[in-house]
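TICKET: design request
STATUS: open
ATTACHED STRUCTURE:
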């Protein structure tokens, strides 16, 4: 079952319009090529089966500062978790990272001007840890650039989360408040932006144009 972020029609049109038929100077085109070239050329890791794990039974201490540092073939970015907003999903991410569940996975979905998505060891967009959690987002939740949230299928309840996460590369005012917000990028946003360029706006599946690997996700507690 694919855990895809749903794009509203209006957002899809906006994203397509940002690339199709636009004129760019040679300077901007060259700058974009340099950003893309900064990603290492890496082999696609072998796919693994979905997990058969159990959800954590405890949540994170909200008085602590919890971070996840993503080491990718395009650089490193750091996410500050929000355990008060999504206590179950954030506890799950920390537990999975400590079990090295995310090691040698890929960013399997890139939609330019919208999101990058990863967290699936099967590399198909349909894998997970073997369980789900639910943290229903507030009706006023907004998905802005740098926000990190959890992907789900259209039929799953609001706030359902497995292991697949997405990072917003632009504001998405039309995206409904259906996805559990787990944090925001506090360092390395240029890396996220770089990865976000590696997509074909005409591809409805968001297949990246270049392999991007996540070699390790490191938990920080301060």
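STATUS: resolved
RESOLUTION: sequence designed for all positions
ATTACHED SEQUENCE:
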């Amino acid at each position: 079952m694919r855990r895809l972020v749903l794009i509203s029609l209006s957002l899809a049109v906006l994203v397509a319009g940002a690339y199709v038929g636009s004129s760019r100077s040679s300077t901007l085109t060259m700058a974009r090529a340099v950003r893309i070239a900064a990603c290492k050329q890496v082999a696609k890791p072998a796919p693994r089966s979905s997990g058969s794990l159990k959800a954590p039974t405890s949540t994170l201490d909200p008085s602590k500062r919890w971070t996840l540092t993503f080491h990718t073939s395009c650089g490193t970015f750091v996410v500050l978790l929000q355990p008060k907003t999504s206590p179950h999903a954030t506890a799950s991410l920390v537990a999975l990272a400590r079990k090295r569940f995310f090691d040698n996975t890929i960013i399997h979905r890139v939609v330019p001007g919208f999101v990058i998505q990863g967290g699936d060891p099967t590399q198909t967009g349909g894998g997970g840890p073997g369980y789900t959690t639910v943290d229903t987002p507030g009706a006023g939740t907004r998905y802005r650039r740098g926000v990190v949230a959890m992907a789900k299928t259209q039929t799953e309840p609001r706030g359902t989360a497995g292991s697949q996460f997405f990072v917003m590369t632009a504001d998405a005012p039309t995206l409904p408040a259906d996805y559990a917000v787990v944090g925001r990028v506090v360092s390395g946003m240029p890396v996220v932006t770089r990865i976000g360029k590696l997509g074909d706006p005409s591809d409805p599946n968001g297949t990246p144009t270049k392999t991007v690997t996540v070699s390790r996700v490191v938990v920080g507690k301060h």
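CLOSING REMARK: The chain has one domain: 9-221. Residues 1-28, 30-35 have pLDDT under 50 and may be disordered.
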